[in-house]
Write a structure and sequence with these properties.
heterodimer; A: mainly alpha; B: Porin; 16-stranded antiparallel beta barrel; disordered N terminus
Chain lengths: 73, 415
């Protein structure tokens, strides 16, 4: 599975390197500036979910840090 | 009623902390307050939780913000203790070493002494350094009866490509102190011997995070995070057991405290895509792959679709799919005579699949207020009849699984 993980990383790096051709002008950001379009929108929901799944599964983190600050696992 | 709620929430907010921060950019001199309460209940009288949270973010001017958050987490109920069911009545010593509880024949052994309250504070301070750089410093502390956690974190974000690309570099450090009821048991020793050592033990966790967020076009963006996590110290669950069974009948002959390695390295890759459609509906999809040196690999898919209606109402279905492989040292049970270095029957380290289906309904009342309610169902299952079962074990449910209902209310306002 390590090999699979390395493939995913490679794809991510290649994907990121193609980013320079993407994007919008400053005056085209009206939709992206909406609160509900933020990547971390619904922060409380995300924190609740992270806490629940941290205590019931063996994985955590990803969008944020993996540490749980909880004795539940 | 509304006024009182607002007052209380406002007073509380002055003493609270947040790690994640509010997505809302506060107007100067206002606090943006997000409050919520979560009810979590597992079926069959297992764990239930009540968790109120309040977070508040204040704009300090020039895009500098301070966020504070307080979480109280009250848990009660019973959880699987790791031992296999038997055709006989089983007796387990309580964690304190005083008293015992019995489990009926052919029933999953559950520890019914599970009761705890956790209080967690966190604080986050974000400050722009210049037009394209900003830094974020965070601190968090949480305390429950047998566990204390202290953490600090720092995140640097750099905008480039006309602010269409943001690179994030983060580091966090956490120190946990575990003081189990009845002291720390010696791993893989018999429960009946109650061989216990120090009153507490500790572990530390260091996380590194590297992320790229990319604007794709006027209505969509993409994020990729790579995370590395190193944990060292006491990783065992002091309240979990593993059964030793007779090699012919499969009946338990002894119950051992579980034992896990004292370090764990995890790597995860997280990707998220978000798109607003022409009708203002929002589609979000994310995927996480995690692998660790305990032998666990996991995949998590998460999808939401927000239907936007008139008057600020929205309806958001949610689907989450999760699967994981088992840890190298995970065993349903040990055979008599087996003497492994590490062994755990904690279902959370076993091979499993989980599905969450939910829906959220809410309304943006105006710039000042919003509310929502969320209802979800979580189903977790594993192989209850594994091929390694024999004797009486073939008649038993060896992976208890669980079913939980989650209800959550959110209310956000300016104060």
């Amino acid at each position: 599975m390590k090999t699979g993980f390395q493939w995913v990383i490679l794809c991510a790096i290649l994907g990121a390197s193609g980013c320079s051709s993407l994007g919008v002008k400053p005056w085209e950001r009206n939709l992206l500036a909406r609160e509900d379009m933020l990547m971390e929108a619904d922060a409380i929901d995300l924190a609740f979910d992270e806490h629940i799944y941290f205590s019931k599964e063996a994985s955590s983190g990803g969008q944020g840090f993996a540490g749980g600050g909880c004795g539940c696992n | 009623m509304q006024l009182n709620k607002k007052k209380v929430a406002g007073l509380l907010s002055a003493a609270t902390c947040t790690l994640l921060g509010s997505p809302v950019q506060a107007e100067e001199n206002d606090w943006d307050v997000d409050s919520a309460v979560l009810f979590y209940a597992e079926s069959d009288g297992r764990v239930s939780a009540f968790e109120p949270v309040i977070s508040a973010t204040k704009d300090l001017g020039d895009d500098e913000t301070l966020s504070l958050k307080l979480v109280i987490d009250s848990l009660t109920g019973a959880s699987a203790n790791g031992a296999v069911p038997s055709t006989q009545v089983q007796t387990f010593t309580r964690p304190s070493g005083n008293g015992s509880y019995t489990v009926d024949p052919n029933e999953t052994p559950l520890d019914d002494t599970f009761k705890d309250t956790r209080v967690a504070y966190s604080m986050n301070w974000e400050k722009p350094i210049d037009r394209n750089n900003r830094r974020n410093l965070g601190f968090n502390i949480s305390k429950e009866y047998d566990f204390t956690s202290l953490g600090v974190n720092a995140l640097w974000q750099h905008d480039t490509n006309k602010r269409n690309t943001t690179y994030s570099y983060g580091i966090s450090a956490e120190l946990d102190d575990i003081a189990p009821v009845g002291k720390v048991p010696e791993p893989l020793t018999s429960m009946s011997a109650q061989n216990k050592g120090a009153s507490s033990d500790s572990r530390n966790i260091v996380d590194l995070l590297f992320g790229v967020t990319q604007v794709i076009d006027k209505s969509s963006l993409f994020q990729v995070n790579l995370s590395l996590s190193e944990a060292d110290g006491y990783m065992t669950d002091p309240y979990k057991f593993i059964s030793v069974v007779d090699n012919t009948s499969g009946e338990p002959t002894d119950i051992l405290f579980e034992g896990r390695p004292d370090s764990r390295s995890r790597q995860s890759l997280y990707a998220k895509y978000k798109k607003m459609l022409a009708n203002k509906d929002i589609f979000t999809a994310s995927y996480r792959f995690m692998t660790d040196d305990w032998g666990i690999d996991s995949n998590t898919f998460d999808f939401t679709y927000r239907f936007m209606f008139n008057s600020g109402y929205y309806l958001q279905p949610h689907l989450r799919l999760y699967d994981q492989s088992e840890a190298d040292f995970y065993n349903y049970f040990l055979l008599t005579g087996e003497n492994p270095t590490y062994a755990s029957a904690d279902y959370r380290l076993g091979e499993m699949e989980a599905t969450t289906v939910g829906v959220k309904f809410g309304r943006e009342l105006d710039d000042q207020h919003s509310w929502s309610v969320r209802l979800e169902q979580y189903l977790q299952s594993g192989d209850a009849s594994p091929s390694e079962a024999f004797g009486q074990l073939t008649q038993q449910d060896l992976y208890p699984g669980l079913e939980a209902t989650i209800v959550q209310f959110n209310y956000s306002f300016k104060w």
